[in-house]
Amino acid sequence: MRQQVLDSRKATSRAQSDGAIVLGLLNAVEKGGVTQRSLSRELGIAVGLVNIYIKRCINTGLIKVQEIPHRRYAYYVTPQGFVEKSRLITTHFISSFEFFRRARAACEDSLLKAVAAEQGRIALLGANELAEIAVVVAMDIGLQIVAIVDPVLKKPRFVGAPVIANVAAVAQIADAALVTSLANPQATFESAAEVLVRERVYIPALLFPVASSGGMRR
User: Fold this and answer.
1) High-pLDDT (> 70) share of the chain, %
2) Could you tell me the fold of the domain covering 99-216?
């Protein structure tokens, strides 16, 4: 059952990512004057992948291509492409709202357990949209976010909190930690549990089907 849930979430995530790339591609093409290399930079994906998506959009009638002088190509969004763009915008809005609703509820559930345990200083493990939501929830229930732990982020602060690269520093400044990593929440939990008592590391159920705040049931 757990594997089915994980597979379903992965499939949903892939579909959302695919839709986001197509939407970004249609937006960029609509503005005009794009090349596959400029699309690669704008979308943050490899040129080869841009080529795959362009061919797919051409084959499905979302984009048309016209050869121009100097062996170059111009891309245009078709009427069907504009319809698909509107659909993707609506889908993205709905999925984003659903993520926010579920993420807020999951963060609140975990952080209220920290309140009950009188753990007022919280570190967030992962800098991303989920961490932003957790900060809002923490403010609402009177908790202090003392740090964001993220080894990749090259910024001194994130949503008002200092960024630290090493989870080992958490024990010195926080009463508890909340996993907000979207990439690998279980590994993040295990790493933090080596530094803090496991009962002081919370993980929202949104991130792990069998997670329980203050530890994982196996």
Assistant:
1) 87
2) Rossmann fold (3.40.50)
